[in-house]
Each structure stands twice: as C-alpha cells, then as structure tokens.
Specification:
The protein is α+β, with helices and mostly antiparallel strands. 35% of the residues lie in helices and 25% in strands. The strands form 2 sheets. Strands 1-2-7-12-10-11-9 form a 7-stranded mixed beta sheet. A 6-stranded mixed beta sheet has the order 8-6-5-4-3-13, with helices on one face.
C-alpha cells in the first residue's frame, strides 16, 4: 500500500491518500441482496440492515461480532502522538493495510482528519449534546433516520457504546481533559449513508462525557487510479480550452479582455483537489444466495425475533 500526504493550498496537512493494490476481498465488507445489506467480518455477521423504501432510512440489527483491528492503544503512545493527527493517521494506516479484518480493498482511499461531522455544530450547542445526538441508538436493533440527519451526519457504533463510568472511558476522560485523546476511526459507508466506528468507541464516549470535540480520522473510498487520470485529463483540457477561448477574444477585442487564468486557474485547482479526495460509493459484494440467504442468516442471528427489518 502506498501512502501520500494530502494538504491544503497553504500546506496544512489534512489526510493520507492510500493506494491499495492486490487486495481484492477485504475481511470487513458489505454484502448486498437488493435493499438488504450485511456487514461481515471474517464470515461473522456484524450488522444486518434493510433500506426502507422510499429511501427514508435503514432498519438495522447489530450483533456483538465486530472486533477492532487496531491493537489497544497504550497511554504512553497517546502522549507521544498527542495533537499530531498526521502521525496518528500513519499509525492507523499501517493497521488498515496489514490487518485482514479491515475494510481496505484494491483502489484508492482517503484517511482524513476532516469530516462533515465537525462542521455543523452550532456554537450554542455543547459538544456533549451535539456528538451525543450524532450517535445512532438502539441495540440490538435500531433505525438510521435519513430524514432527521441527512448528508451522512450520523455515527453508528459497531458495538454498544460504553457508559461514562466504564473503566476504559474513565481513563480516556482524563486524556480528553488534557487534550491527549487519540482519534476515533470512522468508516463512511454509502449504503447506510452513515459513519461506522471502526475503533474508538470508548474514546468517543469519553469525549462526550467531557463535552470536548473528539479528534477524528475518517476513511472513505476515492476515485480509482484510471478514473482519476481520465478526469484530471478532462479538467486540464477544459482549462486549456478556457485559455484558448480568452486568447481568441483578446485577439478580437484587445487586452481589455482578461487572459482567463485568474478564473480558470483557481477553478482547475479546486476541481483537482475534489477529484483527488471526494468520497466515492462504498463497494458492496453480491450476496451468494440473495434474499433467501440473507433471511436465513437474519433468522439465525436474531434467534427468530421479530424486528422491522426482518
């Protein structure tokens, strides 16, 4: 896996680009049978989901099968990397690339310290209230409400959130107060239009308990190498066309006509950044056996209990 830093125009680091090769089937993956989804980790069912028609939300059933592929974080590691999202990203990227239980598969990904979740808190809303409201409640079953929270503004824990008095949460609460809290690792899954917590349930619980903004690292797919190359070529072609068009106008009307670089240049820069980092839909693999197999697994996982998605 090749890693590359992603920065803003001013050079500020914002994330890592991950170029994954020769990894065709990840250990943590989404399977699909029509509107029915199943998230599996090493053949263990972690989450069952059914998209509600007409696209209003998702009914889900969560098991306790998910296991984080990030080794437990030591306190001294947290202190050494505190306040340095770039070093944390490289550390998490190593485990994403080496663990068979991660969602990485062949293609390009972005591991970013910037998330849409961080942009929408109103100043009058406390961090505890805001981040608590982003959590999808319900265990083992619940509902992801696309009407209430649009544009991927929800977080679905892959296991029940620990309480504020949990021993791990207490340890992280001290780190949260001191500004040493390690990032929470999220995975945006387009089929759920929601962020899943891959690692950091206790850290997020600690941030909410202390009413501080949790540091985040968000993982999502980006354009493939071939698609990116083709779209970059198209964007550069449009830029060159704009310069040629302005040159023709200047030949007719004189130097009062701008050369076009002042408008086309920044537009090209924005487009290239978006092409390099914009989220792409999550891959879902067809489920062998289709609806019938999904229903069989659902009956087995739920013990035959009735739930809205079943």
């Amino acid at each position: 896996m090749r890693r590359g830093n992603v920065t803003r125009d001013d050079g500020t680091w914002t994330g890592l680009s991950l170029d994954v090769r020769d990894r065709h089937l990840p250990g943590l993956r989404v399977l699909q049978a029509g509107p029915r989804l199943l998230i599996s980790q090493h053949s263990r069912t972690a989450l069952l989901a059914v998209v509600e028609e007409p696209l209003r939300g998702v009914d889900f059933w969560r098991t306790d099968a998910y296991r984080s592929f990030i080794p437990p974080l030591r306190a001294d590691t947290g202190q050494a990397l505190a306040g340095n999202p770039e070093r944390w990203a490289h550390r998490f990227a190593r485990h994403l690339g080496s663990s068979p239980g991660s969602p990485l598969h062949e293609g390009r990904w972005l591991l970013s310290s910037e998330s849409p979740l961080q942009r929408w808190r109103h100043p009058s809303t406390s961090h505890a209230e805001y981040w608590g409201s982003m959590l999808v409640e319900g265990h083992p079953d619940g509902y992801i409400d696309w009407f209430l929270h649009s544009v991927a503004l929800e977080i679905l824990p892959l296991r029940p959130m620990p309480g504020p008095d949990d021993s791990r949460v207490k340890a992280y609460r001290k780190q949260a107060r001191e500004g040493l809290l390690p990032p929470v690792l999220l995975w945006w899954v387009s089929g759920l239009d929601c962020h899943l917590i891959l690692d950091g349930h206790a850290r997020l619980a600690a941030a909410i308990a202390e009413s501080v903004e949790p540091p985040l690292l968000q993982l999502h797919r980006t354009l493939s190498r071939d698609d990116l190359a083709a779209r970059v070529a198209g964007a550069v072609g449009f830029y060159e066309h704009e310069l040629d068009r302005h040159a023709e106008l200047r030949g007719v009307h004189g130097s009062t006509v701008p050369d076009g670089a002042a408008t086309a240049g920044p537009q090209l820069g924005r487009l290239l950044r978006e092409l390099d980092t914009a989220a792409r839909p999550t891959w879902a693999w067809p489920m062998a056996g289709g609806d019938e197999e999904w229903c069989r697994i659902a009956h087995e996982v739920t013990g035959g209990r009735k739930w809205p998605g079943g």
